[in-house]
Automatic annotation (TrEMBL):
Belongs to the DapA family. This is 4-hydroxy-tetrahydrodipicolinate synthase. The keyword Cell inner membrane does not apply. The active site is at 137 (proton donor/acceptor), 166 (schiff-base intermediate with substrate). One of its GO terms (cellular component) is cytosol. Keywords: Amino-acid biosynthesis, Cytoplasm, Diaminopimelate biosynthesis, Lyase, Lysine biosynthesis, Schiff base. Its EC number is 4.3.3.7. It is an enzyme of class 4 (lyase). It catalyses: L-aspartate 4-semialdehyde + pyruvate = (2S,4S)-4-hydroxy-2,3,4,5-tetrahydrodipicolinate + H2O + H(+). InterPro entries: Aldolase_TIM, DapA, DapA-like, Schiff_base-form_aldolases_AS.
Length: 296
């Protein structure tokens, strides 16, 4: 599949660790196979769900290279390469391309809160200096900055390699504005599992998902059905997993999803500081829901 045609369920895959805190590459390989055999349409490696803020540059490169090698062209591999430094973002992006990533997921610069003009300049510099498809990533709740729909559309119109946006601002009006004004071929992905079904009904192209780590086959089916207009099937799946999707953000991502994977026996329940284990009450809620869904 060409990255420009990518639709459906794109998992933001976790980074598993061994008990000693080192990356567990063998378990990561198993997760990749789990997703491909379950119908996942694409994989984002080294995103926020992959705990990339705690990975070294060398570990980032190791994970991208490992993912590309294990996937072996079966689905697109998208590497998270964002930074609040434009120079560093270009450096990380070029490295990911060198390692074989099919596309880049570039988050809005965080903490330093650029102006609208600064935001445009950041992404335009990345687009001009990196020869690869770029997916913008807007998640104001985590970055403290916002890619306005008009800015995203202007970037898409001016740079052919800016091919999509992952929108995680939680506002359906933003989806409507993006979808009404996007140029031909520009993809809009939800970055919020809970809104993904509704966004697809408006014409979005799927979701870069957290909960797909747990239910890849059913989340793929929910995305496919809602994109294809089979709303009965999509709606049933949405309500089946509604509570689970909400629980994915009961505490900071990726604590709930990685805890759930541990409860399911797929990874160790190991995080790198400053992340740590979930609170007992929310962990118990998650455990109850997983048992209800027969996932553990």
């Amino acid at each position: 599949m060409q990255i420009e045609q990518l639709q459906g369920s794109i998992v933001a895959i976790v980074t598993p660790f061994k008990d000693n805190g080192e990356i567990d590459l063998e378990t990561f390989d198993e997760l990749v196979e789990f997703h491909i055999s379950s119908g996942t349409d694409g994989i984002v490696v080294c995103g926020t769900t992959g705990e990339t803020p705690t990975l070294s540059d060398a570990e980032d490169a190791q994970m991208i290279e490992r993912c590309v090698k294990k996937v072996n062209g079966r689905v697109p591999v998208i590497a998270g390469t964002g930074s609040n430094s434009t120079v560093d973002c270009i450096k990380y992006s070029r490295k990911a391309v060198e390692l074989g990533a099919d596309a880049l997921l570039v988050v809005a610069p965080y903490y330093n809160k650029p102006s609208k003009r600064g935001m445009y300049k950041h992404f335009s510099q990345v687009a001009k200096n990196v020869d690869a498809p770029i997916i913008l990533y807007n998640v104001p709740g985590r970055t403290g900055s916002n890619i306005e729909p008009a800015t995203a559309i202007e970037l898409a119109n001016n740079y052919k390699n800016i091919i999509a946006i992952k929108e995680a601002g939680g506002d359906m009006n933003v989806f409507a504005e993006l979808l009404a004004n996007r140029p031909d071929g520009f993809k809009v992905y939800s970055g919020d599992d809970f809104l993904s079904y509704s966004a697809n009904c408006l014409g979005a192209d799927g979701c870069i998902s957290v909960v797909a780590n747990l239910i890849p086959a059913d989340f793929h089916q929910m995305m496919k059905s809602s994109i294809d207009g089979d709303y009965k099937v999509a709606r049933e799946l949405f309500y089946k997993y509604r509570a689970l999707m909400e629980l994915m953000f009961a505490e900071s991502n990726p604590l709930p999803v990685k805890t759930a994977l541990a409860l399911m026996g797929r990874v160790n329940e190991v995080f790198r500081a400053p992340l740590c284990e979930m609170e007992d009450d929310t962990r118990e809620q998650l455990k109850i829901e997983l048992k209800k869904l027969k996932l553990m």
